[in-house]
Structure formats: C-alpha cells, structure tokens
Amino acid sequence: MLRFVIRRLGALAATLLISSFLIFAAMYAAPGTPESFLVQGRTVSPEVLASIRAQYGLDDPFLLRYWNWLSGVLTGDLGESLTTRQDVASLLLSRIPTTLWLTLYAAVIIVVFGVLAGAIAGLRGGAFDTAVLLGSSVGFAIPTFFAAVLLMSMFSVTLGWFPVFGAGAGFADRMAHLTLPAVALALPAAAVVARITRTAVVEERGAEHVSVALARGVPWRVVARRHIVRNAMLPVTTIVGVNIAALVAGAAVVEHAFTLDGIGAMLINSVQQKDFAVVQAIALVLVAVFGVVNLVIDVLYAVIDPRVQFGGESA
Question: Signal peptide location in the record (predicted)?
Fold first, then answer.
C-alpha cells in the first residue's frame, strides 16, 4: 500500500512536470503577445517595446523562459501579474477561499443528493426510482450557465430567498450567498452520480450473493448495507471523485455568472487579458487538483473493499 502511494506520488510529480511544460508552451503559442496588451493598443517606439520585452524576459529563448518560470514555481514564486503588477501567489491565496467554499458546498450536494438519491432509488424502486431517473435526465441536460440564470431568476429575483452577487462574510452569510452558485455547479454532476449510483445498486441487488444472503435469513437492512451498497460504491467512488475534481474547472462559469471573486473568474479575466503568469498558475493548480483527487480515489478503494490490490500488492 505504501509503495503504491509512493509510486502514484511520483507519477503525479511527472504529470505536473509535463503539464507545466504544455501549459507554458500553449500560452505562448496562443494568438497575441503580452507586450501588445501592456501597451493597450498605443503606438510606442521600438525602444519602449524592447524595454518592455527585456523587463519581462520575453527576448530570452523559450526553454530558458520555461526553466526560469519552473524554478520559481518550485520555490513558491509564481511570477508577477502583467495587469496588476502583484505577486501571483498572493492573488491566488486571496481568491482560493471563495472557490474552495464553493466547490466543497457543491461536493456535499453531489454526495448527499447524488449518491443518496441513487442508492435509495436502486434499493426501493417504484415511484421514487422513476422520479430519480426523470430528475437526473433533466439535471444532466441543463447547462451550468443556464441553471445559474434560472436559479437567480426564480429564487433571488422572484422569490427573494437568496442573494445573487458576492461571496458573503461570515459562515451563515457565506452559505446564503453560495447556495445558488453551488446548486448550479453541482446540478449536472449530481444527476450523473445519481444515475450511475442507481444503476450500480440495481446490478448488485440482482447478484447471486445477495439472493444467497437473503435465503439464509440475513436481514434486508444488513444485506442492503453490507452486500449491495458497499459493493456498488466502487464504481460510484470513481465517478464522484472525477466530478468533484471537475468542479474547480467548472466553477469558472458559475463564478462569472454570480460575480464571485474566485480563481475561476480570475482565470477567465486573465485569459482575456493575456496575463500569462496568472493563467499558467491557475492551470497548474487545476492539474494538481485532478491528480490529488485521483490518488485519493485509488486509496479509498482499499477502504471500501480490502480485497482490492495495487500492482500485485495487497491493500
């Protein structure tokens, strides 16, 4: 188990290294240049343009620029924003709490409503099962941005139950401000998780070992918990983890719609302004989140089912 975790950490480090190079190269391959944004469309002399390029090291060879940036990242120096002239690490630290609260809130919604509704639908069937199937189909079909607009119109403008803009201050106020954004962010993922959980539970419910346990007189509650739901959680764990990891990237749309000061909204603004350092830092954070979540999922397999083996090594 320990060797498996060490190997996965090494693979994660290699993934981050390769991703950092691709992210750095993609920004410089995109149309436009940083200096064109810095001069704001004004006509400047070649001397001024050369001074700007020298200041930001834009005349250095590509590999040298990448090495300088990577060396800074490894020491916690993510560079300086071209637009605000502030330290990128400080900008991220000021924005991460909002995105973290939003994604955690959405993750709770996915787990509670997605997994719970899917499990109950798979175990009970009937009208509740039909309702979950219909609701998951509708939830998956609604785009996140449209869901955000719909929720704002219904629960904020019409009913006045929730505030629309900002992240709030204090726990209770923050939860009130983030409820609609979290629901909009979690809706498609919760629908997918509910459908897959329901399918996994139905398959396990029809398994032979469940019939044998019931025939031996094992109470249904015990069979449902130990034989059906527990075995069904292996594929569900993967889907939940992938969708939770994707929340950080999907938060950009929701944060922009609700004018939240998170890293998602900052990513959109930075891409539009060609702010290389900020875009590169946020993209690297997204890759790191996906890698860490996948590692956690693999480790959770051993917790859910001790029979799982990692690379020929018993958990």
Answer: none
